[in-house]
Structure formats: structure tokens, C-alpha cells
Design goal:
Elements (H helix, E strand, L loop, with lengths): L4 E2 L1 H14 L1 H6 L3 E5 L13 E8 L10 E8 L15 E4 L2 E3 L9 H4 L10 E4 H14 L8 E5 L5 H6 L6 E8 L10 E8 L13 E2 L10
Amino acid sequence: MADFKINLDQANHYIEKFIDEYGTKASNDALGGTLEKDSLNGALASDKVGSMAWFCWNPNESGGYDRFFMAIEALTSYSTINGVPDPENSSLISPGNTFTYDDEHKDEILNHHKSDVDNLSNGSISKSDVEDFKDNFIEVFDDNTEYPYSFTDTAESNDLEDFTNQDDIEYIAYFFGYSDDAVYGDNKIRLIFAPLDSHGEVITSGSPIFLQKSAPPPPDS
């Protein structure tokens, strides 16, 4: 069974590495975004196989979307036999907001992060816009990405359900991470999901679950 879980220290390390590699983009464009609590729940339905998050780069901030963000959808099928798949749904979830790196606490971002969750509400984005923005992402991050997405399997793994069912989770934040570990090949930009409490702060007490080991490549490959 695939294992998508990582711990707090591992999550902080991936994010720190992204800042080291892409500090200007983290400070000026985005280090992550904030989502409503149920944003990933669609992938838990019996007819779904997982949650797909598309990396979107929107250089001119057209359509009212931020420059750098993720678009989320639940998939009924997933295959890379014919190369990079296309978005499946006509409308996808866009984050309620995005946030940048404030040049502090680089080595413990999650321990100090607080998302703005006042009146937070997800947005929506069309399939055609995601298709354009994911292609832009590949062009901009060509050296460190092959596939412009992060797929978390729910057909063979309960990790996403465990993540969303954590005590005190009220919102979800995603962060951009980076790893030059050979297991990831050319897919060095990683996506980390973090649980937030009712104040928008990352849950760090106890043993909180963070998610990262998404495809590509296959987890534990």
C-alpha cells in the first residue's frame, strides 16, 4: 500500500529546500495556499481513485487568479500510459487564498505559519484555464519538473482519509517543497499538505499527519 505520510520535521525540510531553490518566487509569488477543510474529500468517494492537484503558473494574473497556485480535483481514473494526463473535470477547486514567504523562520516554517482563514472560501477554475496554466508551469520550472501535478491515491491507500480526519483540523494548507532525492527523478518540486486548526495555524502538537509522497513518481518507488 502506498504511503503518502510524512512528519512535521520532514515537511519543514522540504519547504526549506524550496525556499533555498526558489526564494524569489516563494517571497514574491507564492509559497502555498489555503483551502477549506473538505476540499480533498471528493476523492474519498467510492467511485474516485484519488485527488489531483495541478501546478498552475499564471504570469499575468489573468482571470483574477494568483500567479502561482494549485488547482484541485477528484479523479475517477488515473494513468500515465499516454504521457501527462489532462484535467478530468470541467471545473476545479482553486484556493481560498495564497501566501508568500516572509523571510523568517525558514527552517521551521510550519511551526510559525498562520493562514488568513477569516471568511475563507475556495474559488473555482475552468479546465481550459488549468490546461494553459499547467503548461506555463512546465515552461517556467522545466529543469525541476516533468509532470505538472501531484496525485494522491485513495483507491489503494487510506492516508488521505487519515489526514482529513485528524483531530482539530479545520482548514488545509498546501506548501511547495523541493527534493533532489534521486527517487523523485525530474519531479523535484513537491507538494505538501498540512492540517490547520480553527485559527489557521498548522497543527504541530502530538503526531500530526502531513502528506507529500505523491505521484509522480509512484510512492516508495
